[in-house]
Amino acid sequence: MVFGQVVVGPPGSGKTTYCNGMSQFLKLIGRKVAVINLDPANDSLPYECAVNIEDLIKLSDVMAEHSLGPNGGLVYCMDYLEKNIDWLESKLKPLIKDHYLLFDFPGQVELFFLHSNAKNVIMKLIKKLDLRLTAILLVDSHLCSDPGKYISALLLSLSTMLHLELPHINVLSKIDLIESYGKLAFNLDYYTDVQDLSYIQDHLDQDPRSAKYRKLTKELCEVIENFGLVNFSTLDIQDKESVGNLVKLIDKSNGYVFASIEGSAVEFSKVAAGPLDWDYYRVAAVQEKYMDDDQNFEYND
């Protein structure tokens, strides 16, 4: 079995920075990592790329040849990748024996809750290569400072979860910068646990610009609460403990923690229900190196 992550999220949520930091962290705890760039618009990669979609198709070429804008061009590129999935399979086969995979996808959110091409690519890879993947949806934590944007982030998270049909973790990224966006109306737990949304509706009604959408907001919040699926983890990509805690959640969700276990269902359940005793950041020298390597990170897509 091969394990990995599908990294998605809106533009500017920090996907590329996440892949860079996560790959460094995983390497430092002993895993061989391969980052697969499937964003044909990302021409400035801070990480070493094992597979790059630009070797197959480039967004700039698509836009010029077919007179498309960036959004239409990205849809075309994902459709082209799906039709040429054999190319991606051939690139991945040498890696799946001993690598942990990170898939860096485009930031066009329509690809993950509206169009089917990206999902079809993922599902074909899972079936043919026996992958165990977790979807990581990054959402910029600054959206918590605006009630309307926060509700939009909840809807995006729910739609993506239902569309991709993968083990899924929603992440508030750049949590270290959240105080710079202004004081939150509620404590952080309210936003991560997605508690009673009537409170944020009341807060939103105080804004005369959104008061006229009161009924619509109420209906949308009820949809989110009725599904009861959305919550968030937090991430500071420069904090080794924050990254380590997220890795623990991911390893449970895609089954990495069970990979080396042979035994009864009872033993599996003990691992699933109990806290992990793995030390994800056990060596002080390694921790310091990780922090030194990451201190100059810049957030981008």
From TrEMBL:
UniProt xrefs under InterPro entries: Gpn, Gpn2, P-loop_NTPase
Pfam families: ATP_bind_1
Keywords: GTP-binding, Hydrolase, Nucleotide-binding
Gene Ontology CC: one annotated term: cytoplasm
Source species, domain of life: Eukaryota
GO molecular function, one term: GTP binding
Family assignment from sequence similarity: Belongs to the GPN-loop GTPase family.
Subunit structure: Binds to RNA polymerase II (RNAPII).
Protein function: Small GTPase required for proper localization of RNA polymerase II and III (RNAPII and RNAPIII). May act at an RNAP assembly step prior to nuclear import.
Annotated protein name in UniProt: GPN-loop GTPase 2
Organism whose genome encodes this protein: Aquilegia coerulea
